[in-house]
Each structure stands twice: as structure tokens, then as C-alpha cells.
Amino acid sequence: MNWRTELKNFFVIGKKSLRPLTLLFMLVLLSIVVATRACFSDEPVLETLPVERLNEATMLDGNKTWKEVFELQQQELDQGNIECVMLGDSITFRFRTTGKTVWDTYLGPRNVVNLGIDSDRTEHVIWRLLHYDWSKASPKLAFVLIGSNNYRDSTAANIVAGNRRICEILRELFPDIKIVVFELFPFRLINGEESERQLHLRNEVNRLLRQEFAACDSVQVVNVESLFLSPDGTVAAETMPDGVHLCPSAFDRWAQEITCLIDANERSGE
Predict the structure, then answer these.
(1) pTM of the model
(2) Stretch among 22-31, 71-80, 113-122, 223-232 having the lowest mean pLDDT
(3) How far, in whole angstroms, is CA 171 from its chain's centroid?
(4) Which residue did the predictor score with more confidence, 4 or 163?
(5) Contact yes or no for 198/187 (Cβ under 8 A)
(6) 141-145/112-116 β-pairing
């Protein structure tokens, strides 16, 4: 019996299309193929790849373009005597605007450089880390708060992968650096269903961050949400007027926590 006859015995036109055992075999084979492709997929994770925003003309908070902020940060790094860097998005960046007085009181005197930029995602921070000139800066401590702008089209696992890549680059640049990764901040639910989805994603990201770095001596994951929550567990309008960014008093509470973390890191290095 040739292969055509065998095949004809498996398929019956107008009746059952496949013998039960053959159907089972094909389903098992298909599942193996799918699983193999998933395991050996070389598709890159966007959140871990460097992406720049140099050509964007949009004026960010502070009345500067992304490129102008990047160049300003480079000038600050070139001044040397850098003890700490803070990497992030607009939440961190606004220490330069809404939280400037707080910054000048607590963090400026501690030789901290603000490396936050409005609307940045994990991939933008990765690009910046790889393209700053670090020749005059050797920070001993880095604070990382990034991922909120990835909410719309990223999974929790990919956001955490981006954070992991940021920490890897920091350790490659500065082998002895200590890193504090802040869990993503709470926010006010101001747009219904979308905020609920983001809240679920945020909680999952934070859970995975704790899991990812649980056994890593050089990375500490810190939850500071209690600094921003009211007694009823929600974020008050005065704390985050637009639902995301901090008011001056909230910046003050965060800066004091950062100062305590800097002090703790200095004591551990004695």
C-alpha cells in the first residue's frame, strides 16, 4: 500500500475527517511545535532594548526637549563628585520643577544627579545609560523608578525584564554599585476601567520585582506607597493632583525616605 492509499484511509470525504488516534497524534505534534517555538524564540523583548528620543521636538515639563534634558544631565554628570543617580521618568524628573525646593534641601547636598525624563519607558532609560559619558562620574548608589509609561502596551513580565536590564547595565558600568529599585507608585483612579487595568498591572509588576531581585545582594526593592496613601488606602487629590505626579509635600516625604536609604548605604559601606 503506497502513501497515497494510506493518506486516503485517514481522510474520508463527507464523513469523519480524521481517525480519532490520528487526530490525537496531530494535536500532540502541534502542541510540541508550539512549545518548541516558544522556548527557542529569538524575538527580542522591546522593553530591554535601547531606544532614543533625540529627534522629538515636543517640549517637556521644564520647557526643554528630550535631547536638551539629556544634554543637561550630561553636563551635571561631567561636574564629577557624584554619589548617587536617580533614573526614571517624569515622576523623578519633576524634582526639577514641582519638587525643586525639596531637592535643593535634601538631595542636592548629597551629590545626587536627577536622571529622570518625562514620558520615558524602560527602553529609553536603557539607551541613556549606554550613551551617557560616565568618565567623570562613579556613583556608589542608584535609584530606579521606571515602568509606568510601559503600562499601555507592555506585560508585567516585560516591564520587570526592562528593570532587570537596567540593573545589569549599572552593574556592568559600576561593579560595586548598590541599586534601589522602587516599586511602581500608586496612583489615583481617575479614568475608570483603564485605571483598574493599570492597577492590576502595577500590582503584578511589583510582585514580580520583589521575586526577581529577592536573592540579589546588590539590588534592594523598596515599597514607599505608604508615603502617598490616605488612611482609607487611596491617594488623595492633593497628593497627586493629576493622578500620577506628586505634590511638593509628597516629594518631601519621598526625599526624606531617599535620604534615609543613602544614609543606610553609607553605613553598610563603613
Answers:
(1) 0.83
(2) 22-31
(3) 16
(4) 163
(5) yes
(6) unpaired
